[in-house]
Write a structure and sequence with these properties.
This protein is of the alpha+beta class. It has helices spanning 2-18, 47-62, 94-111, 157-164, 190-207, 246-278, 280-294; strands spanning 32-37, 68-73, 82-88, 118-122, 125-130, 142-147, 170-175, 178-184, 213-218, 221-226. The chain binds 2-acetamido-2-deoxy-beta-D-glucopyranose (NAG). It is a single-pass type I membrane protein.
Length: 295
């Protein structure tokens, strides 16, 4: 009887894993990647400050219905004009995009108080603002370059070729254990995006050869690859649907154990009825049901 009980618990446990809400991806949308601020500062209570605040508020609002937008808050004085854009990773659900942009904007506020311009990249979105026009301008300067261990022995070439080949503003690919993702900001033209991703991939190829991960963030695009382990898993793909989230796993294990205990109690109550002489027939009936269900 003990083996069939542990089999039952196992089945209940795996069922409870599958019943977990599949919308809650483990992808670390809000993970901080980089941030930067301009040297130039504005005076508190200047018109620029209130324009910037309304710009940032509008960016957050816009992210509830669009994965990309650019905004300009005009002013009679050129020094008070505020420009901004955000770009969510192409696979984010709208509510994740909105919460990511809100997080990035508040992060920029912490990072760049009083600075005219700032940029924050989280795993799931990018936000940039300034009082100098930058929207629609391709920018291939390296903002962040990070490679994993060069002795990891991976060959990212197939993934990189996949990312650099033609594609849209959001690209994913994979080969073996390596997964890759690339994203352009929506203000680039298709040709500029292709050029920018090509540059990021070229740099990854030369800088992060044999690494288990590589991050190349340029001004208006990025390309990354990883094994999808501790460092990676930064994009949603259907094949990646299972949660890696430890909290959810713990929750599922607890539910599984509780269900196992409940089944044990029911089973013991059932056994007690049998032992009280309710008949050996029911006993066999129960096991034939088990056999039919789980064989
Ligand atoms: C900026 O936003 C405006 C209004 O939504 C849009 O018409 C324009 O194409 C955008 N420009 C760029 C470069 O994305």
């Amino acid at each position: 009887m003990a083996p069939s009980l542990s089999l039952l618990s196992l089945i209940v446990f795996s069922l409870s894993l599958q019943l977990l809400p599949s919308s809650s991806y483990s992808v670390p949308v809000d993970t901080f990647v980089y941030g930067g601020c301009t040297q130039q500062r504005y005076n508190p209570t200047s018109p620029y400050e209130s324009n910037l605040n309304s710009l940032l508020g509008s960016l957050v609002n816009s992210a509830t219905f669009s994965a990309y937008n650019n905004l300009t808050v005009l002013s009679s004085s050129q020094s008070a004009v505020a420009y901004g854009l955000y770009q969510c990773r192409g696979d984010l659900a709208m509510q994740d995009c909105a919460s990511c942009v809100a997080r990035a904007v508040s992060r920029a506020g912490e990072l760049c108080p009083g600075a005219c311009g700032g940029a924050v990249q989280l795993d799931g979105c990018f936000v940039k603002y300034d009082n100098v026009a930058f929207v629609g301008v391709e920018d291939k300067s390296v903002v962040l370059r990070k490679c994993g261990s060069h002795s990891a022995g991976y060959d990212p070439e197939a993934v990189l070729v996949g990312l650099a080949g033609s594609g849209g503003y959001f690209r994913v690919g994979g080969s073996g254990r390596l997964k890759g993702v690339a994203q352009c900001t929506g203000d680039l033209s298709a040709a500029e995006c292709q050029d920018c991703v090509g540059e990021a991939v070229r740099r990854l190829r030369s800088d992060c050869a044999a690494s288990d991960y590589g991050d190349m963030f340029l001004g208006k695009c990025y390309a990354r690859f990883s094994t999808g382990g501790a460092h990676g898993g930064y994009y949603n793909s259907k094949a990646h649907g299972r949660s890696d989230n430890e909290g959810e796993k713990t929750f599922a294990i607890i539910i599984g154990l509780l269900a196992g205990v409940a089944l044990l109690i029911i089973f013991l109550a059932f056994l007690r009825r049998i032992c009280e002489g309710q008949g050996i027939f029911q006993f066999f009936f129960f096991f034939s049901l088990l056999y039919l269900d789980f064989k």
